[in-house]
Amino acid sequence: MIKEALQYIVNLGTAEVQTVGNQDYSTQPLHLIKEATPDQLEVRSLSGLAEYLISNFDDDGFEKRMVHVVSPTEVVAFSPFNGNYNRNEYIQAKAMVPSFHFDRWYDAEEFNIKLQSAFVKNEDRDIMLKVVGNIKEENVRQIGDDGVSQAVQAKVGVATVATVQVPNPVVLAPYRTFVEVEQPESDFIFRMQNGPRCTLFEADGGAWKLAAMKNIKEYLEQALKTEIENGKVVIIA
Fold first, then answer.
1. Taking the model in full, what pTM does it have?
2. Could you tell me the residue ranges of all domains in the chain?
3. Mean of all residue pLDDT scores within the chain
4. 153, 97 Cβ separation under 8 angstroms
5. Is pLDDT at 68 greater than 90 in this prediction?
């Protein structure tokens, strides 16, 4: 193929072929003319991606599509490679997730709002809300000899203030993936400082990401069941 291209250029009179060390060289550069690929669509939901694939809206001659769960917040669908070993990347789904920065210190009021708006309701979240929402003084004390336990003065009744132990560790389910699937629960270290200020540290080594990607794959397998059975779609995660 390379020799044919070189010879074609030589025939046009625009280049010469020279042999050096049993290898053929052109005196002019060759540029590959690549097959065109489409611009990628972008949606914000898994249902949008599934609806696009079911519709077969873009019929480019490829019979199969592959869906790749890239991360908990990104899924792409593409074709087999073409003659230039490039793929048609049809559509990308990117999750919209609320903003919450782990390892960052929030004041008690902002942290309280974040707990309610960026986390799924569960038992540990409600316990944290009761502690953070009823703090009566700025000081946070270390208790015990384990280097972990903390306590604050908090309102525990209609007119009662007492020393309340800060829950730690806690199991929470932040909104970190597509809302169509279950948000994985994972362990967090909950810490407080004088102010009072609060923060969460992830403590599951990133295992939640694998759980979220598994949930996405299962959702798409159900949404695209007919296409999968007909051999038109393959899903990997």
1. 0.81
2. 1-31, 41-96+212-236, 106-204
3. 86
4. no
5. yes
